[in-house]
From TrEMBL:
Disordered: annotated span: 1-21
Domain of life: Eukaryota
Residues of the Tryptophan synthase beta chain-like PALP domain: 66-352
InterPro entries: ACT_ThrD-II-like (IPR044561), Ser/Thr_Dehydratase (IPR050147), Thr_deHydtase_catblc (IPR005789), TrpB-like_PALP (IPR001926), TrpB-like_PALP_sf (IPR036052)
Protein source organism: Ceratina calcarata
Protein name per the record: Serine racemase
Reaction equations catalysed: L-serine = pyruvate + NH4(+); D-serine = pyruvate + NH4(+); L-serine = D-serine
Function: Catalyzes the synthesis of D-serine from L-serine. D-serine is a key coagonist with glutamate at NMDA receptors. Has dehydratase activity towards both L-serine and D-serine.
GO MF, one example: threonine deaminase activity
Keyword annotations from UniProtKB, A to Z: Lyase, Pyridoxal phosphate
Entry similarity comment: Belongs to the serine/threonine dehydratase family.
Cofactor(s) needed: pyridoxal 5'-phosphate
Its EC number(s): 4.3.1.17, 4.3.1.18, 5.1.1.18
Cross-referenced Pfam families: PALP
Length: 462
């Protein structure tokens, strides 16, 4: 790995044109057609670097004084899922994610000249936070380029650690190009957040802790974004216990590893907005894919609603606030996609907890809705005195709680003596929700559930 650093120092390239500052003081790049020169020397497609188990053990020794050895405890969801679940709570790291492991090791492995010059990276949040924090602790200057869609909370946190934060680029692809160009101009070492060999080795220390904390493991279910975490964890676990099953999980809205396996090489995938924003990497790393692909026994792609349900379950049952990326492993189990694990001992790394407060609220509501515990419906009732009150009494009689209610008259054309009542209500579970639906259908002619425009009419026998 030191050879890689030497290669980086010898790679001078040619001067790139830059616009040094914009009117608001932020760095702005001049986009050119010479992007082929903006190559990360640690991540080369034609020469992928596979890390070794010795790299991971070296990382474990060197970072142990600066990283939290997080607990791995049995889950209260074990009985409900039929799986002996253990949760590795790595969201308890100082900056809220596993990214600290790789960031600290990558910084420690720099040469003295590189440490003095500083490092740069592009990140949506967790890697940037980890790099800024440990750069601050180790006295190494850090610059991070964050796309404009990065959470404001994470941008502010990076600045609190004294880092140079550049908010530029509409997405991660542009942010990375800006960071590489800026790094070449300023002589900074670029540290890829998921594909740098030292980053992967550092993430692998999570796997070492898991096998030390939980005996007789049958499987480890790992979220996949760029692939660095599963590469390190799979290598660590499989080296010590070859029979342990390694399962990777992605969101259906960012299936980059699935695409890589389909084509047998890292391939750019279409990325849509997702609750698991930490996994939204358009293409897995070359080094990560080369290291992890042969070690992954099964790959699962989960739907967004199950990620929301998993976040809800972790809050309710474990009192753990976990971001979407960290909840994907549980999502796959709850969705019934890993039923072969029933009766077995399984570890889930809860790898990040940096979820925006407003996003958390949306996730909880979506989880409740997906479980049938939050319902929205529109019902046409009589506009004569007591019509709406009768509906409310009916809901109360079966224990349904009204969360929001409104009515409108102006757009009811069929009957001047009717009113549409829109209700958002809470139920205990799906069975309770079914009871509510049956009651409404029996008592009202027109009921519309959810966002559907198609009403269901039921004529009463009178």
């Amino acid at each position: 790995m030191r050879d890689l650093n030497r290669k980086f120092n010898q790679d001078n390239g040619h001067q790139l044109d830059l616009i040094p500052e914009s009117t608001n003081g932020d760095f702005v790049s001049a986009y050119h057609n010479d992007d082929e020169e903006l190559i990360d020397p640690f991540c080369v497609e034609d020469n992928p670097h596979k890390i070794t188990f010795e790299d991971i053990t070296s990382a474990a020794f060197k970072i142990k004084c600066g990283i939290v050895n997080t607990p791995c405890v049995q889950s209260r969801l074990s009985d409900a899922t039929g799986i002996d679940l253990y949760l590795k709570k790595d969201f308890l790291q100082r900056t809220g994610s596993f990214k600290e492991r790789g960031a600290r090791y990558a910084l420690l492995m720099l040469s003295e000249e590189q440490k003095q010059a500083g490092v740069i990276s592009a990140s949506l949040g967790n890697h940037a936070l980890a790099l800024c924090y440990h750069g601050y602790k180790l006295g190494i200057p850090v610059t991070v380029v964050m796309p404009v869609l990065a959470p404001i909370m994470k941008i502010a946190a990076c600045r609190q650690y004294g880092a140079n934060v550049i908010v530029d680029g509409p997405d991660m692809g542009e942010a990375k190009r800006i960071a590489l160009r800026h790094g070449k101009e300023k002589g900074l070492t670029y540290i890829n957040g998921y594909d740098h060999p030292d980053i992967m080795a550092g993430q692998g220390t999570l796997g070492l802790e898991i096998v030390e904390q939980v005996p007789n493991i049958d499987a480890v279910v790992v979220p996949i974004g760029g692939g660095g975490l599963i590469a390190g964890v799979a290598l660590a676990v499989k080296t010590l216990h070859p029979n342990v099953t390694i399962i990777g999980v992605e969101s259906e809205r960012c299936p980059s590893f699935y695409m890589a396996r389909k084509t047998n090489r890292p391939t750019r995938a279409t990325i849509d907005s997702t609750l698991a924003d930490g996994l939204a990497v358009p293409m897995v790393g070359y080094n990560a894919f080369a290291t992890a692909n042969s070690l992954i026994d099964k790959l699962v792609v989960v739907k967004e609603e199950w990620i929301a349900i998993a976040i809800l379950k972790l809050v309710e049952n474990e009192k753990c606030i976990v971001e979407g990326a960290g909840a994907t492993g549980l999502a796959a189990i709850l969705a019934g996609q890993l039923d072969e694990l029933k009766g077995k001992r399984v570890v889930l790394p809860l790898c990040g907890g940096n979820i925006d407060t407003t996003i958390l609220g949306r996730c909880l509501e979506r989880g409740l809705a997906a479980e049938g515990r939050l319902l929205k419906f529109t019902v046409t009732v009589s506009d004569r005195p007591g019509g709406i009150a009768e509906l409310c009494r009916m809901l109360a009689s079966i224990g349904v709680s009204i969360k929001d209610i409104m009515h409108e008259r102006a757009w009811i054309m069929s009957d001047i003596f009717s009113v549409d009542v829109k209700v958002v209500c809470e139920t205990r579970d799906r069975e309770h929700a079914t009871q509510l639906k049956n009651m409404l259908h029996q008592n009202y002619q027109r009921v519309v559930f959810g966002t559907s425009d198609n009403s269901t009419s039921h004529h009463l026998n009178v």
